[in-house]
Specification:
- The protein is an alpha/beta fold.
- The protein contains six helices and eight strands, in the order αββααβαβββαβαβ.
- The strands form two sheets. The chain has a six-stranded mixed β-sheet with strand order 5-4-3-6-7-8, with helices on both faces. It has a two-stranded antiparallel sheet with strand order 1-2.
- Strand 3, helix 4 and strand 4 form a beta-alpha-beta unit.
Length: 184
């Protein structure tokens, strides 16, 4: 499916059907919520993953970047979906993975994949809540010599991350907000 508006609509339907879990949950921030948006159910789904690539690629299409990636695990399938959607469109984009901590063995790298040194990158993730994961990825990418162009996510939970990114001077984009997800 290459029609972006159709891909966006279908992806939203799949998210609502498979990824929104209602009930009391404790978030990574330690706060409690009445629902959980489990986008790994989407980013690793055979139908939804290609749609993620199409929709996310469209979201950042006007940006000048070479690679996409972020903090493992949420960012990994998002980045590879963008890599594949870009390749299918004849446009090469690399993906990278930011480890939560550097490896103690081998090359002891914190960032895996093609080198991002001297390259323009977009930090991605599946769902943004506090902004801790993308900020951590931004710091790691900068330490590796990359220029971070923006942060992009599939779903924004409207819990302060946007302001945090703005305060840090980082452009922030997302595909769906709480209202579109039926959670506002």
């Amino acid at each position: 499916m290459t029609d972006t508006s159709a891909a966006r609509a279908r992806l939203l339907d799949i998210i609502k059907d498979k990824a929104i879990v209602h009930g009391r949950v404790t978030l990574s921030s330690g706060k409690e919520a009445d629902y959980y948006v489990d986008l790994r159910r989407i980013t690793l789904d055979g139908e939804a993953s290609p749609l993620v690539g199409v929709v996310m690629r469209d979201l950042i299409a006007d940006l000048d970047y070479d690679a996409v990636g972020g903090l493992t695990l949420g960012a990994d399938p998002v980045a590879t979906s963008i890599l594949h959607a870009s390749a299918a469109a004849g446009d090469r984009k690399d993906a990278f993975v930011v480890r939560k901590a550097g490896k103690a063995h081998g090359l002891q790298q914190r960032i895996e994949g093609p080198s991002i040194e001297g390259r323009r990158v977009v930090v991605v993730e599946d769902t943004t809540t506090t902004g801790n994961s993308p900020i951590d990825a931004v710091e790691a990418a900068r330490e590796a010599g990359a220029e971070v162009v923006a942060i992009a996510t599939i779903a924004d939970r409207a819990t302060g991350a946007a302001q945090r990114f703005e305060d840090a001077g980082i452009e922030y984009r997302y595909v769906y907000d709480l209202e579109e997800l039926g959670l506002a």
